[in-house]
Specification:
Blueprint lengths: L9 H18 L5 E6 L2 H12 L5 E6 L2 H12 L3 E6 L8 H10 L3 E7 L1 E2 L4 E2 L3 H9 L3 E5 L18 E3 L12 E6 L1 H8 L12 H8 L11 H17 L1 H21 L15 E5 L6 H12 L4 E2 L8 E5 L7 H17 L8 H14 L1
Parallel strand pairs: 2-3, 2-4, 4-7, 7-8
Antiparallel strand pairs: 1-9, 5-6, 8-9, 10-12, 11-12
Helix pairs in contact: 1-8, 4-5, 8-9, 9-11, 9-12, 10-11
Length: 365
């Protein structure tokens, strides 16, 4: 065994610098202030809210699932006057609704939206909403927790001002860090604050001095986690983002084809379904919790339950990062078919795998 090196060791400092470059590549940005915040993905949300929001700031938040609601709550705790733009769970936030909220606000500080709503499987378009936000003088904030390294996240091209993610999903590292990136405009807003950031630990002015060239001590970085993220990000870049996005689309198409062949229905809005997170309606008369338990007991497969109004009504199937593989798709479809048939659901055995195989053949061209 080797001892863990110190967080100010020159070798570790080089890893920090290289990691910032890797994260810029994954976020598709040139933002200088790009680094992993210490803490899980939720700390990314907190660091953005704590640094960009002051008492009385007007914040527009798209809420079409549990995680949009969470950002709205976080912003309110920072003293913001929050304008929620709500949509039906499973559906996207329409740009027109955001524009209406922007026009109604006196002085909107930022617009926040979830790119990949984990609770519903909805894939939210960003570009048009970002353009609207900037047209009204607001910063654009994006929750990319479930989208980064699974589907395109184009921070610079979409003119996103602050974006956060996590390590355990698309990047396939252990949980514990939150990659974040701040644009020059966002950092200008930080410098123009009337008051100090309410969080000492998440004050980006201080953390930036640690991750910047000054190396001013702020807190002890989670060294082993940073090494893990460094390796995960290196693997992502080695695969190439475009190929990684294609892999997620291909495997999701096969999964969806197999689910449809079993007569199972996808919940998220058609045309706006995430490849990496699928929500599936539980068939009538089926015990959804028992299905999940049997998948875990018999096949070592874990899928998630529904949240909020979807509780007990949907399954959430993650197919992201390194777990987004053909063998996992076929294993899940075969296992679901076996368990559901055993519970009395009428379905044609073998159709799901045949439909998935056809989807793979079509993707191969």
């Amino acid at each position: 065994m080797s001892p863990v090196i110190g967080h100010l060791d020159p070798d570790f400092v080089k890893v920090m610098e290289d990691l910032k470059g890797l994260l810029r590549a994954v976020f598709r940005t040139e933002n200088e202030m790009t680094f992993p915040a210490s803490g899980t993905g939720s700390s990314g949300m907190e660091i953005i809210a704590a640094n960009l929001i002051e008492d009385g700031d007007e914040v527009i938040v798209g809420v079409n699932g549990a995680f949009g609601a969470r950002f709205a709550d976080c912003a309110e705790r920072q003293g913001a006057k929050v304008h929620k733009v709500e949509a039906q769970w499973g559906h996207i936030i329409e740009p027109g609704a955001i524009e209406t909220a922007l026009k109604a606000a006196r002085n909107p500080k930022l617009v926040a939206i979830v790119h990949a709503e984990t609770s519903t499987g909805a894939h939210q378009p960003i570009e048009e909403i970002s353009a609207l936000a900037h047209r009204h003088g607001a910063l654009m904030v994006v929750d990319a927790v479930t989208s980064l390294a699974c589907v395109p996240v184009e921070v610079d091209r979409w003119n996103i001002d602050a974006c956060f993610s996590c390590t355990q999903k698309g990047l396939s590292a252990p949980p514990g860090l939150a990659p974040v990136t701040f644009s020059a405009a966002a950092m200008d807003a930080v410098r123009k604050r009337r008051t100090k950031c309410r969080s000492w630990y998440l004050d980006i002015a201080m953390i930036g001095s640690y991750w910047g060239s000054e190396r001013v001590y702020h807190h002890t970085a989670p060294i082993t986690m940073i090494y893990a993220l460094y390796e995960a990000a290196r693997i992502v870049i080695e695969e190439r983002l475009e190929e990684r996005w294609r892999r997620h689309r291909t495997n999701a198409a096969a999964l969806h084809a197999g689910l449809n062949a079993m007569g199972l229905k996808l919940v998220a809005q058609e045309g706006h379904r995430l490849p990496q997170l699928s929500t599936v309606a539980v068939p009538e008369g089926i015990d959804e919790a028992k299905v999940r338990a049997e998948l875990l007991r018999l096949f070592n497969i874990e899928i998630a339950a529904g949240l909020g109004p979807f509780k007990g009504k949907v399954w959430r199937i993650g197919l992201m990062g390194e777990s987004c593989r053909r063998e996992n798709v076929t294993l899940l479809l075969g296992a679901l078919e076996q368990i559901l048939a055993g519970m009395g659901l009428e379905l044609a055995r073998g159709k799901a795998l045949a439909a998935a195989d056809a989807a793979y053949a079509a993707a191969a061209g």
